[in-house]
Amino acid sequence: MNTTRLNITLPTSLNNDITRYAEELNEKKSHIIASALDMYFDYLDLRVAEKRLSEDDGERYTLDEVFKELGV
């Protein structure tokens, strides 16, 4: 996996939580943060999907229609 080094500023309490979990789980802080962001992005994906569903801005397709179009 490619990585990028970031320099971020966090509240001390959040840093303390990350440090505590990293020590307890014997994992790097960067792994704890990356895992947390992955989970948060899943949550944001859901929010975006719900927002798009609530907007009446176009056609909608059923799963069967999508499968039929894809030949599945």
Question: Care to count the β-strands?
Answer: 0
Helical run tally: 3
Measured between the Cα atoms of the first and last residue, the distance is: 32 Å
Average pLDDT, rounded to a whole number, is 93
Verbal overview:
The protein has helices at 12-25, 29-54, 63-70. Helix content is 67%, strand content 0%. The chain has 3 helices and no strands. The protein is elongated, with a radius of gyration of 20 Å. The two termini are 32 Å apart. The model has no long low-confidence stretch (mean pLDDT 93). The chain is an all-alpha fold and 72 residues long. The chain has one domain.
How is this fold's topology laid out?
Layout: H1 12-25, H2 29-54, H3 63-70
Helix pairs in contact: 1-2
Short description:
The chain is mostly helical and 72 residues long. It has one domain (12-70).
Summarize this structure as a short list of keywords or feature phrases:
mainly alpha, single chain, 0% strand, 72 residues
